[in-house]
Amino acid sequence: MHGDLRTNGGAAAAPSGVKARFDHVTKRFGSGDGAVQALEPISLDIAENAFVCLVGPSGCGKSTLLNILAGFETPTSGQALMDGVPVRGPDPRRGVVFQQGALFTWMNVRDNVAFGPLATGKSSSEAQRIAMHYLEMVGLTAFAKRYPYELSGGMQQRVGIARALANDPEILLMDEPFAALDAQTRELLQEEIKRIWQSTRKTVLWITHSIEEALFLATDIVVMSARPGRIKARLAPQFALSEDPAVVASVEFMRMKAEIFALLREESLAAQRQEVER
Ligand SMILES: Nc1ncnc2c1ncn2[C@@H]1O[C@H](COP(=O)(O)OP(=O)(O)OP(=O)(O)O)[C@@H](O)[C@H]1O
Ligand SMILES: [Mg+2]
Question: 163 and 112 in contact (C-beta within 8 Å)?
Fold first, then answer.
């Protein structure tokens, strides 16, 4: 149960090491009476090529954990490591996508995606080529010259994902990237993300409130407890390598969905009690 998180070992799975590690990470915000213990010691290995989904009740510290690996927050104790090296701050090797696109409103779609490659010293023509490659991957070549305000929310998120991929990060950190989207768009983008992950096998840490989304995409699901966040359970679903969208109707999918639902319900009730006791 406390072993490393591993990929499922399907045909496409390379022999994998540990890409990122949380080593006894804790986080406390503020001090004195107003202090909030967001994370209890968390130790978690993210295997190379794994797609790890974090689920847990609101306020349990998921974003805090992701932000510590991104380098946006420092842990109170313990450390996050990438390739064995402690994280000291943001780094283009870690690509981050948030719930709502942080696109540059004054740049067209192609220039938004080309920004990272340009910033890391690529020539203008090479950066544009890279941008078009990733826009094609997310199905937006026809919108390269448009501006963010001309796009739907789902299209903006796809640009955000293309922009993160264009930096060729070694790990993608995604904090509820589809939360603001309608159900149909969300399902289509889940299929798109699965296809992209299957072809690139980028290591991913993905936060979601959707159990179905986690089951559909993840090689590893980490269920967190109510605040202060701890790891309550880990599951290794077998659906990430499947190309059949109908897996969601399989008996095993339903069984795991019920299992995670029950785990989360316990924690959500605990979180609610915490609120009442405050
Ligand atoms: N910058 C901050 N200053 C003070 N408290 C914070 C800060 N960031 C987060 N917290 C607190 O830490 C706890 C964990 O927050 P976090 O945003 O990590 O939760 P979450 O699991 O991502 O929740 P959600 O599912 O609602 O996004 C919460 O109680 C929150 O109020
Ligand atoms: Mg959050």
Answer: yes
